[in-house]
């Protein structure tokens, strides 16, 4: 396995776009560096009475276009560099869809699969307290990401509110509906992936009806995407999670796979399907590939073997710059993460706006507004890529970085 560092990759992607935009070195320095990096070490009492010291991070990359925004992930593999990369991608993502936020991300080094509900709640409450010095409804608004969910957001909201003395629903998004969550947030990321894939498929003259789709990752984003693409008439030929992958060229029933996953904790033992490794689903014959798991999975080592015509990046950072070059040469259309998965943060923005106004919208309105934003962003990115004779990732990064650079210039740099 080659050395992979998400932050180095994010900076490499940034420099490619900055070169193409002919950005000055001064501006590069401002936009490259994270604004704040908070590392916290804090004790959590485990159910057996012992104490474990846990490490967590919150990084705010850039706040020139608005408050920092981005999810929190729980994983044994979290590193500060990974969180810095994810925070930088959030800055570009919010800019590419034109929502008034900067970028942030958080991570806690822990293994939630081996923790009880009580332990997770205590960890979440203590982590929230530790980062409360930089989060807030007008400064930095967390949301769910890998291994966190609406329950974790509810504990965060409650902890922050306890310290404030009153309820502050707008401090996090992705909350349960009963405490100020938004209709449509759960499905938002997958919905956004579908909207931009529809548009890309149309441009490529590929009907979605009957298209073969392979999905890596079967969590919040991947499982819901499998259902939405299935409803669209696609055949879901392969899915995987950390335990392995399954393939059936006739098509899998996503609802049945989901029930199997709920009952057995894995997709890998689902019957009537050929078993394979988690990463093998990236290489199966298909029209559309949806990486929806983690970073750095499509590399120069396997890019040549990817058979899909369209890759819709539901995950953040799944494709390395070396793989991008190979895929572009092959004529594969990569819808980049900062565009493809921006549906999640877009509906988070809707949730925040609703919380601040205490006025809630119907799901139809949310879906319609989301589709409009995703389609306009897709058209803006393809327009930039065409004018600049480059792939969609470079087009998206150029668009996003130029918007953040413009905001930086117009605000002025104090001498
Ligand atoms: N939840 C959200 O709203 C958003 C999530 N994303 C990104 O989407 C990706 C997935 O996030 P969620 O679905 O929320 O997380 P999740 O924790 O709900 O699900 C992650 C899934 O990926 C699987 N997985 C992890 N590593 C894997 C590997 N190496 N091979 C195969 N499967 C693997 C896990 O088993 C699980 O099924 C992440 O990159 C996340 O940053 C992006 C935008 C918004
Ligand atoms: O919903 C949000 O605020 C951010 C979601 C997120 O972490 C992401 O888009 O990667």
From TrEMBL:
The record marks 145 as: Important for catalysis. Pfam families: ELFV_dehydrog, ELFV_dehydrog_N. Belongs to the Glu/Leu/Phe/Val dehydrogenases family. Gene3D superfamilies: Leucine Dehydrogenase, chain A, domain 1, NAD(P)-binding Rossmann-like Domain. PANTHER family: GLUTAMATE DEHYDROGENASE, GLUTAMATE DEHYDROGENASE 1, MITOCHONDRIAL. CDD domains: NAD_bind_1_Glu_DH. The keyword Cell membrane does not apply. The keyword Oxidoreductase applies. One of its GO terms (biological process) is L-glutamate catabolic process. Keywords: NAD, Nucleotide-binding, Oxidoreductase. Substrate binds at residues 69, 93, 348. This is Glutamate dehydrogenase. Residues 182-412 form the Glutamate/phenylalanine/leucine/valine/L-tryptophan dehydrogenase C-terminal domain. It comes from Dictyobacter arantiisoli. The active site is at residue 105. InterPro entries: Aminoacid_DH-like_N_sf, Glu/Leu/Phe/Val/Trp_DH, Glu/Leu/Phe/Val/Trp_DH_C, Glu/Leu/Phe/Val/Trp_DH_dimer, Glu/Leu/Phe/Val_DH_AS, Glu_DH, NAD(P)-bd_dom_sf, NAD_bind_Glu_DH. PROSITE patterns: GLFV_DEHYDROGENASE. NAD(+) binds at residues 189, 220. The lineage of its organism: Bacteria, Bacillati, Chloroflexota, Ktedonobacteria, Ktedonobacterales. Transmembrane segments: none annotated. GO terms for molecular function: glutamate dehydrogenase (NAD+) activity; nucleotide binding.
